[in-house]
Design goal:
Layout (H helix, E strand, L loop, with lengths): L2 E8 L2 H32 L5 H6 L1 H7 L9 H23 L17 E4 L6 E3 L9 E5 L3 E6 L7 E10 L2 E9 L12 E6 L3 E5 L4 E3 L3 H4 L1 H12 L6 H35 L2 E5 L3 H4 L14 H14 L1 H15 L2 E5 L24 E3 L6 E3 H22 L1
Parallel strand pairs: 8-11, 11-12
Antiparallel strand pairs: 1-5, 1-7, 2-6, 3-4, 4-5, 6-7, 8-9, 9-10, 13-14
């Protein structure tokens, strides 16, 4: 099983400057490679591929001994592969008829990750194992950087990445052969309904609260945004406010991630089988503004709902839940969400009128009443168990 481990770096001031320069040089390499591809195709109709650009790296490094040559050859190849993947994704979207989104040049602040594809090639995890209390990672051109390792690393380290988030630096390890940690069987099964009022409602009637981290920080974010609007473009004061605003958003993101881990762990410990809706969150949060010819309706209400859905972090929770379920030996089933909130869990009657309010459900056919989210969770569980029986019978 492959897993990632993310740790905070504690670089010195010189190491932080070297890390920033490493990112900048890799950004310039990415942009130069993109310009190379665009120019070759526009002027000569020639398609440049990864192999062509990788073969030119040795000449680039030879001509820039104090710049590109300082960094790992393998990490630069990884940056070129990153561009190649961007092109592959572009052509895939074209074939599928989606909005293509041609690869763009990376501006300052839009290139924050460098990858070393192999532990030991330009990088080394736990580079000073003889140290009794501290873990270090060694990066070519930067040196041994202290790591705040808050949990043990399992499996074999395959790739090492460094990521900048605001003023913080992180190291991300991708490990193969991570052993599973099965939890004891409980014999319990549950369907879960994702919501805004409650983050998760189970078919047992339990509600996991939605902490609404973005709403809790809305006043500070609004104040910082107003302060930003008053600053002169490209001024030092504006850059300072931008960093403060980024730090606030980063804190909200970390809070949301922490809450998702705790909720997913609670569900994985309690249930052997967990059934959830297969939500298309990108479609659910699409803008309702419409066009000039056909303007949307209730745009402000839809905008507020989209903000609440994204603040709840359903996608983050489901992703983490799938990882924890796999590690714990739990079964996770995704079902079609159509009509799960309108159908009666007792008689199956489906009608829009059954859902009286956000929290109240009353069947117009049999008179069954329940909390609307609990009723939906029961329907989700029933649909998941039906899929499971069909798969076992096949």
């Amino acid at each position: 099983m492959r897993r990632s481990f993310k740790f905070l770096l504690r670089p010195t001031s010189k190491q932080a400057a070297a890390l920033a320069q490493c990112l900048e040089d890799h950004r310039e390499l990415y942009n130069a490679a993109l310009e190379h591809r665009r120019t070759a195709y526009r002027r000569a109709g020639v398609t440049i591929r990864y192999g062509d650009q990788s073969g030119e790296l040795k000449h680039i490094r030879a001509d820039d001994a104090d710049g590109q040559a300082r960094w790992s050859f393998s990490s630069q190849q990884a940056t070129l592969r990153r561009l190649d993947k961007a092109y592959a994704s572009f052509f895939k979207r074209v074939r599928e008829g989606r909005t293509p989104g041609f690869p763009r040049f990376k501006g300052r602040g839009w290139f924050d990750t460098v990858e070393w594809p192999k532990d030991g090639d330009g990088c080394r995890w736990d580079s000073q194992p003889e140290h009794p209390t501290t873990t270090y990672v060694r990066l070519q051109g930067i040196g041994h950087i202290r790591v705040h390792q808050h949990r043990p690393v399992r499996g074999t380290v395959k790739t090492i990445s460094v990521k900048r988030e605001g003023s913080r630096w992180y190291v991300i390890l991708s490990c193969d052969g991570v052993p599973t940690q099965p939890l004891p069987a409980t014999g319990a099964v549950a369907g879960i309904d994702m919501g805004v009022a409650s983050l998760v409602t189970t078919s047992d009637g339990d509600h996991l609260a939605n902490p609404r981290h973005l709403a809790a920080s809305a006043d500070r974010l609004a104040a910082a945004q107003r302060d930003l609007a008053r600053k002169k473009p490209r001024s030092n004061r504006r850059r300072k406010v931008v960093s403060q605003l980024a730090a606030l958003h980063a804190k909200v993101r970390r809070q949301r991630l922490d809450g998702a881990h705790k909720a997913a762990l609670h569900l994985a410990r309690r249930y052997d089988v967990i059934v959830h809706e297969e939500l298309r969150i990108a479609n659910m949060t699409r803008s309702a503004s419409g066009t000039l010819e056909a303007p949307g309706r209730m745009v402000a209400q839809k905008s507020g709902l989209n903000r609440s859905i994204l603040d709840a972090g359903w996608g983050v929770l489901l992703t983490i839940l799938s990882h924890k379920a796999e590690s714990a030996g739990r079964e996770l089933i995704a079902v079609n969400p159509a009509n799960t909130s309108r159908a009666c869990a007792r008689c199956g009657h489906c009608a829009r009128e059954n859902r009286l309010t956000q929290a109240e459900f009353a069947c117009t056919a049999c008179g069954h009443t329940a909390h609307a989210d609990v009723n939906a969770a029961v329907n989700i569980l029933r649909a998941g168990l039906a899929l499971r029986r069909a798969a076992e019978a096949a």
